[in-house]
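Listing S7. Sequence submitted for prediction.
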Amino acid sequence: MKRPISMAVLSLVAAGAWAQQGDGTNVGAQVHIFKPDKVAPTPQRMAGIKAPAGFAVTPFATGLKNVRILAVAPNGNVYASRRDQGDVLLLRDANGDGRADGQPEIVASRAGAHGLAIRDNKLYLVTVKELFVADIQPDGRLGALKMLAGDLPDAGQHANRTIAFGPDGMLYLSVGSTCNDCNETNQENATILRFNQDFSNRNIVASGLRNTIGFDWQPRTGELWGFDHGIDFLGDDEQPEELNKIETGKQYGWPHVYAGGAIYPQSTPVGEIKKEDWKAHSTPMVLGYTAHAAPMQFLFYTGTGFPAEYQGDAFATMRGSWNRKTASGYEIVRVRFQDGQAKSIEPFVTGFLTDGGRTHIARPVGLALAKDGALLMADDANGTIYRIAYTGNAQRAATALKAPAGPMREQAGKGSGVPIAFARPQTQAQGKLAVNSSSFPANGAMPAKYSEYADGVAPALSWSAVPNAESYVVIMEDPDAKPVTPVVHWLAWNIPAAVTRLPEGLQEQPRLTEPDGVLQGRTTHGSTGWRGPQPPVGDPPHHYHFQVYALDRMLDVPWGADRDTLLQAMQGHVLAKGELVGTYAQKQKPQK
């Protein structure tokens, strides 16, 4: 076995070690690189796998190499992705003996194949940058893969995209960060995305999630939960793996804040935002688990194969640490829920670490519910799929659970079906101001470079000064969009009274330093700052309303706020308003 390498030779060391930053940071840490050696899963070693009384852990399939994510069709067929081999396997258990029949069959091949989901007799597959769908044929094989999206963000450190359909019928997709800790230039990194049912558009559900590979919906409440990977190199016991309740519009701290509100010492937020301010905007974790355990697929138990007490609890695979001594993870954990809320995390299946933690026979990744109610777990180290079945006599639930759709639909529909801000009572004003742009004429077509089909840069905007104004607000909306209407493309406020012009290509970040102190909010897409037109290809021209409001005060509204929060704060303080309308249509479908 290789000896662990102390990070003293790489980064930080204990007792006097320090990382000096421009802001005076001085932090000591003791960290290790320690990876238990992989050994063969012999029957003797498998005999050391432990599960609660009444549960049996047996191989479902072996020799599968880098098997990663699992998905089970209604008829019981099992699909498994293999990232290193770039394919999807089909495994069948027609005789119901708990073991796959014969050799698996390759049914799809795409470089970097990873996340899988099944809905309406179709298999969905995601790679690093592409989302595909294929019909499931009667024999379980797949029809031709059709690309639904080809422009997912670049991967960097976290290339393993995962997908799942929510109870609202929408497709959710996790996009990890490109790094251990950095300010992402693409706002879709370190997020969970949501696709419309026709896959015509997508938006950011939540951000500040370093790498939430595993997520699922609590079957009693319909709320979304996920397990996020902690930051590396903070020490053997930092950062804990984070269990989060994920809600639309919330930001979960990464890269500047972690766990229950701890400040990450190395990073610096953009826009001269203070870390305490970033913390105030961040949602802390609900529960933490042992640092560096590496949570992977996350699954609520909804079946009837386990004792009734397990229904509504969740399971997560912990692939195992490389940045800690002693090793953590290499197990399945159970997350206990009470009244729909997480209460504790505890080991469920262990023993994949062997020889006193010096070796391992499995690195758990995939997790799925088999047709008979057993759990299936994929090991991407030795290529085994394990079956965890209950064989005891405890009472089981009579019926399966299904998460309600209401909570996610309500979150997705917030702010839709209302007039544009200009026509709402919160913006009533006696005065008028003139709005114009050097980028396009009034009621004229906007050049393609301002759209998300091209450069996606903000156009220049200017307006007439209003006497006694203390600040200005800019709101840009598209009332022609569907099904969400109007779509918010831009929110900016606390523009100083002396500023009556914003230049082309304004920074897309929460706080600006030029003009200094201007704050920007959350668009319908979920990003912060300008989000260009992106109407469906072939639609008649959409009308984009650039609205400027003069206020008698600065607003105490936090950066990243949504339009309705902004409008509520503006009410009763609007001195004058004006708007400029531009149009945009996309005739040709862009190349993916």
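Caption to Listing S7: primary sequence and predicted structure tokens for the chain studied. The first strand starts at residue 5 and ends at 6. The helical segments are 43-46, 275-280, 406-413, 563-570.
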